[in-house]
Design brief:
Blueprint (H helix, E strand, L loop, with lengths): L3 E2 H8 L2 E3 L3 E2 L1 E3 L9 E4 L11 H6 L4 E4 L12 E3 L3 H15 L3 E6 L4 H13 L4 E3 L9 H7 L7 E5 L8 H8 L3 E4 L13 H9 L10 E5 L5 H10 L3 E6 L6 E8 L4 E7 L2 E7 L4 H17 L3 H7 L11 E6 L8 E7 L5 H13 L14 E6 L8 H6 L12 E5 L4 H4 L7 E5 L3 H4 L2 H4 L5 E5 L7 H10 L4 E3 L2
Parallel strand pairs: 4-5, 5-6, 6-7, 8-10, 8-11, 9-10, 11-12, 12-13, 13-14, 18-22, 19-20, 19-22, 20-21
Antiparallel strand pairs: 1-3, 2-7, 14-15, 15-16, 17-18, 17-23
Helix pairs in contact: 3-5, 4-9, 7-8
Length: about 475
């Protein structure tokens, strides 16, 4: 069964079809386009219309355009609309309308992508599940995810993000979730808001999209919890809370961080459940309780979901752990890399550093004979006027003393470096590029190395540099 026929797409968008075509997917990028996709010619850094001919030559089944690009055959398969983004949104709304499955929308300052992927894992074991790829959570990512949703999906998980006020509500209205989850409210993108309360109000706007009788789920331990609960009440939604506090409907009772695992116990309603996550992190345990709260709201098998959490592992750039061979001539010269280079906030930085503090280096492998816990920390961006204090405040984390050496990247992270004891101070660099030529001196076999920073500070370059040391000798950590 095709995802979209020309006739269905015209009905959804009010556009005009050229040719009688059908497509099996939707793509906005010729680099990842699959044969049979509908290519959507969005205008971003470049005009997608310039790539329509290339997309069709690569096997696209049709293209969504607002004008006929030059150089196409007269019978080129097209869907012509007044505005391409509005056309994509119309496809998304139509896909949502024809789907009889239950939809979960996820937002939060931190943890939304990991939680979305946890939900994909546990829901896929209980029905046909559609979920956003990567972090497709913005004004084009949400309608794209919806437009890709098969009509026979039993569950869908839609991630919704924001950088500025007013972004979440219209996306939530497109998604029309039966369950809306807020993982957390923290000082992320705070420069665009007056206060953390403003961030809470924006996150709570996800409830405006809830279907009648929908369920709102949020972290009840936060200081901003009253703002969120009031927003749920305004929408007539049933509110369920999760967290560690006794008043929460779904509680994390116990959590133990192992070197490679997190073992937790949760009370979901009246049901006590144990779960294991194959990655260390208290934040992963908290996300797991949120996932189980969603499962309870959907009325499906809680015990199975708790067991299936063990099938989830963090994606690249979000805490994924790898064993890296750093000497191409010797298989025993390895370190463990924790790749968390995709984003950073004070909340997520604390979580990642706690994971590193619990890690177990290996002695007797490297030149120093003793394995170390090493952190390479890049700037946390979009924190507004409090950025200096928030970076310096990382020095007060109680478990920071367990980390042997900390390298700092970026002008903001210098605030932390200046507060570190001399023995913990590593390199302090303005950019990631400055450290690339020094990697072999900064790390050693037996080390556990955390790379963490906001995407814009590009500490992902250091991740790539470490991986290249062994010339392809990287394997995922078990």
């Amino acid at each position: 069964m095709s995802l979209w026929t020309a006739q269905d797409a015209v009905a959804a968008t009010g556009g005009r079809a050229q040719g009688d075509w059908s497509v099996d997917g939707v793509s906005i990028d010729t680099r990842t386009l699959q044969s049979g996709d509908l290519f959507v010619a969005l205008k971003a850094a470049r005009d997608g219309h310039d790539f329509v001919a290339q997309a069709l030559a690569a096997g696209a089944g049709a293209a969504l355009v607002s004008r006929v690009p030059d150089g196409l055959d007269d019978d080129a398969p097209l869907l012509i609309v007044d505005d391409v983004l509005e056309g994509l949104e119309a496809l998304g709304r139509a896909a949502r309308a024809r789907c009889g499955g239950r939809v979960v929308a996820v937002t939060g300052s931190v943890g939304k992508t990991s939680t979305k992927e946890m939900l994909r894992t546990v829901l896929s074991a209980q029905g046909r599940t559609h979920a956003a790829v990567a972090s497709y959570n913005n004004h084009w990512g949400v309608p794209l995810t919806l437009a890709r949703m098969p009509a026979d999906s039993e569950f869908a998980v839609i991630e919704i993000g924001m950088n500025h006020p007013g972004e979440i509500a219209p996306l939530a209205v497109q998604a029309r979730p039966h369950v809306a989850l807020i993982t957390n409210v923290a000082a992320v993108h705070i420069e665009a808001f007056e206060s953390i309360d403003g961030i809470a109000r924006e996150k709570a706007a996800i409830f405006q999209g809830l279907e009648a009788g929908g369920i709102a789920i949020s972290n009840g331990d936060l200081e901003t919890a009253p703002i969120v609960s009031s927003a749920a009440a305004e929408q007539g939604a049933q509110l369920a809370s999760f967290g560690e506090g006794a008043r929460n409907d779904c509680r994390l009772l116990d959590v133990s961080l192992q070197d490679k695992q997190t073992i937790g116990t949760a009370l979901i309603g009246s049901q006590k459940l144990s779960f294991t996550i194959n990655a260390p992190g208290r934040h992963f345990a908290q996300n797991a309780v949120a996932v189980l709260a969603v499962v309870q709201a959907l009325g499906i098998d809680l015990a199975k979901a708790a067991g299936d959490l063990a099938q989830w592992t963090p994606p690249a750039g979000r805490g994924m752990r790898e064993i890296i061979r750093i000497d191409p001539e010797r298989d025993d010269q390895t370190l463990e890399l924790i790749d968390d280079a995709f984003n950073a906030s004070p909340t997520s930085m604390k979580a990642s550093l706690e994971v590193l503090a619990a890690a177990k280096p290996k002695d007797g492998l490297g030149q120093t004979a003793k394995g170390r816990r090493v952190a390479v920390l890049g700037d946390m961006l979009e924190l507004g006027g409090a950025e200096g204090v928030l970076h310096a405040g990382l020095a007060d984390l109680p478990f920071l003393s367990e980390i042997d050496i900390i390298h700092c990247v970026g002008p903001r992270m210098q605030n932390l470096w200046q507060r570190l004891p001399a023995g913990q101070r590593g390199r302090c660099a303005d950019s990631a590029d400055e450290l690339l030529d020094e990697l072999s001196q900064l790390i050693d076999a037996g080390d556990v190395v955390l790379i963490k920073g906001s995407k814009g500070i590009k500490v992902s370059k250091i991740v790539d540099g470490i991986r290249k040391l062994g010339h392809g000798g990287a394997t995922q950590s078990k």
